[in-house]
Amino acid sequence: MLAGALTACSSTAQSEGRETTEARPNTIVVTSTQPATTTTVAQTTSSTSTSTTSTTSTTSTSTSTTSTSTTTTTVPLDVYDPTCVERVQPDDNLLTIATRVADETVDPETIKAENGLANNLINLGQLLDVCVDNGVNDVTGEARGERNAVIVQREVMAQQTKLNELFAGYGIRELLVDGVSGPVTRQRLCAFRLAVGLPVSTADMVADGTYAKLTTPLVGYSPAPKDPIRSQL
Q1: How far is 146 from 142, CA to CA, in rounded Å?
Q2: How far, in Å, CA of 233 to CA of 186, rounded?
Q3: Contact (Cβ atoms closer than 8 angstroms) between residue 121 and residue 147
Q4: Burial of 16 (0-12, 13-18, 19+ CB in 10 A)
Q5: Which residues contact residue 126 at a Cβ distance below 8 angstroms, ignoring those fewer than 6 apart?
Q6: What's the rounded Cα separation, in Å, for the pair 194 and 12?
Q7: The predicted structure's pLDDT at residue 194
Q8: Domain ranges across the chain
Q9: pLDDT at 24
Q10: Which H, E and C letters describe the chain, residue by residue?
Q11: Alpha-carbon distance 66 to 74, whole Å?
């Protein structure tokens, strides 16, 4: 059935111490031969006592600790959608900015594409739109004319990989997985649509989600996260 659909589409198709000595008085008694005369001489020995006082001085040191509290005030961004915009901080790079965003589609490459950056160079204070591929410039609020080119390229590569699996065994050469939706890729997509009973052109499809439901399990991802018919399929 795919092979037949492929033939039918051939014409429509063209990524923080103290020492004391106390002297006792010595009494010397002298007796003379003269009677009843007694002379008593008292000999006193003087002793000097020296007292040494030792003083111990104790020094007490008191340490005072001062605690400083710093309060940082964040000024709201004056942009269309502050939740979708990051201001470049010191030591930031595209990878650190991407990790602050809870979205698997946001990485350095998709941020570059969304903000029109030619390389990884960013400036302190620069505002970056990090809600990629939502169709809006979240800094200015202007609508974007085109989808995020890196997202589109990754989607096309996923399509090409899945289409090669779908058409394996039909004797048809594999698509080059390059992210470019060329005429051969479009031909295979056309054949796929015919095989599942969809119109050849997405322009003829109703935006009711039917197309996304059919293609998600087959192509490997949701081809229309914003609009059921806004897709390369």
Answers
A1: 12
A2: 8
A3: no
A4: exposed
A5: 87, 88
A6: 12
A7: 86
A8: 2-9+148-219
A9: 44
A10: CHHHHHHHHCCCCCCCCEECCCCCCEEEEEECCCCCCEEEEEECCCCCCEECCCCCCCCCCCCCCCCCCCCCCCCCCCCCCHHHEEECCCCCCHHHHHHCCCCCCCCHHHHHHHHCCCCCCCCCCCEEECCCCCCECCCCCCECCCCCHHHHHHHHHHHHHHHHHHCCCCCCCCCCCCCCCCHHHHHHHHHHHHHCCCCCCHHHCCCCCHHHHHHHHHHCCCCCCCCCCCCCC
A11: 26
43 forms beta bridges with: 26
Q: What is the pLDDT of residue 48?
A: 43
Mean pLDDT by 10 residues, the chain (233 residues): 72 51 41 44 44 48 61 80 97 97 96 97 97 97 96 94 91 93 90 82 66 60 44 45
Task: Give me the pLDDT at residue 222, please.
Answer: 52
What are phi and psi for residue 185, nearest 5 degrees? -60, -45
pTM of the model: 0.63
Distance, CA of 168 to CA of 38 (rounded, Å): 154
| Amino acid identity, position 75 | V
